[in-house]
Structure of ABC transporter ATP-binding protein:
Amino acid sequence: MYTMIRLENVTKSYGEGDNSFSALKNITLDFNCEEVTLITGTSGSGKSTLLNIISTLESPTSGDVFYDNQNISYLNSDELAEIRSQNIGFVFQQFHLLPNRTAHENILIPLLHQRVNFDKEKRGLEVLESVGLKDKANAFPSQLSGGQQQRVAIARALATNPDWILADEPTGNLDSVNGQKIYELLFKIKKERGCGLIIITHDPSLVAKTDRVIELKDGMLRQDLLKGR
């Protein structure tokens, strides 16, 4: 299990020459799997870019990323995909469920090309049960409410038993009641499974419930509040 992710002097730029834009500027941070971390900031502050770097979806323009003591900055795309598929569970604002697949089939997608030592069909039902939707296994996304679709998306993120869950505005498409239920579920999963949890959010009510708040502004670290340290 990877218990620590560290970024050292990470910069991420897009474009070239006069059209170059730096989304992240010399970010140095570490993330501990024991903590629930919020990433906040205004639109365009670099939050999603930071999450993409943490998750290996994107590589930094400069700087290094470590998973525990392994520098993954120089791995090729296949090696990064392997780390990502086995260790990272994603939850997005958009549910990204395939409309022509049932809830159970959507959950199995991350496992399709993986060799595992467990029954994939059974795992799919287990994680559906863990989010309270085992009775919706054969339902299609169009037959589910927004809150239920996000629960399926969370179950899909859990299918590989990841070390880390990364959630990018996971309640952005939900009303406040269902949004709070999703956050409660994520906190419950983190406590039960011991996985790292990093959430991008604009919801100020979550600050009191988490261990750490990181605020970005214009691609730079504005605040890093570690509670209890």
